[in-house]
Amino acid sequence: MDGGNLYSIGELAQRTGLTVKTIRFYSDRGLVTPADRSHAGYRRYAPETVARLAFVRTLRELGLGLDVIRRVVDQELTLGEVAAEHASALDVQIRILRLRRAVLTAAARREPTPKEMELMHQLATLSQAERRHLIDDFLDTVFDGPPNGSPLAAARRSMTPELPDNPTDEQVRAWVELAELSLDPDFRASERRLADEHMACLPAGTPTPPRPDIFAIARDLVAPAIASGINPDSSQADSVVAALTARCARVYRPPHDAELYRWLLHRLEAAGDPRRDRYFQLLALINDWPPPERLAPLIDWSVTALRLRAAG
User: Fold this and answer.
1) How many CB atoms lie within 10 A of CB 128?
2) Which three-class secondary structure state does DSSP give residue 45?
3) How many other CB atoms are there within 10 angstroms of residue 274's CB atom?
4) Cβ distance 284 to 291 under 8 Å?
5) SS3 call for 193
6) How many CA atoms lie within 13 A of 57 on its CB side?
7) pTM attached to this predicted model
8) CA neighbor of 44 nearest in space, from 8, 1, 73
9) Residue 288 region, left (φ>0) first, then alpha (ψ -120 to 50), else beta?
């Protein structure tokens, strides 16, 4: 120390852990200012420079730029203002990084083609308005246009994903997969046929679809049979099938034994697409809903039982 009061750059380096080169750079940028120079022209710094350099180091490690740091240490900006602004910027960066990680994790599991990878990235980085447009387009296709008082408006709402502002990695991966499903022309067509057939079987002027629907009826009657180990080809299944057809007939149409069997078979087989189960599983993840019960086992059991009895 020169004269007992001032530090050389080398002494500052020893006290702060910064390199001489870094301190000289900070000094050239105005972050620290020499208090004096030696007879040989070397810079000398006041003792408080140690604390100032420690503060600069902290701000640099937090990711602040040198110009912003200079304005903070010179009290042109308050630390609170800078911290709030920088935290907001980091939130954006974190969201982007989480989206990237989610896409890369999904890609690692699926080994996509380059084209599929590009689509996954595009779907993950859509804005909220773009996501809404994509889903509205899918649901308009399925339900023949916007809700506008449609009897299927509630069904449409039950199929609408709402990705949170700060989604988890799992929710982002679920969104990407659901969005890919919604873009699948074959899946769109399958869901549209299901909605059309559902509307066709309703009495004219029905304001809303009946509750429970066919799938809820099947779930109520068939799930306990499956849980009890009743096979669809056993005599014990007769009463389950009779209850299923009777309840569906009361809700949808007058009972006509063979015709009703064929109609129920057609409806259930149309809903047997495993992609439909997957859509609702993904939807529950995105919307943070309880996991839905898989319909596929119920439909498979019902279809087998109905087919056997229709043939008989």
Assistant:
1) 10
2) strand
3) 11
4) yes
5) helix
6) 15
7) 0.64
8) 8
9) left
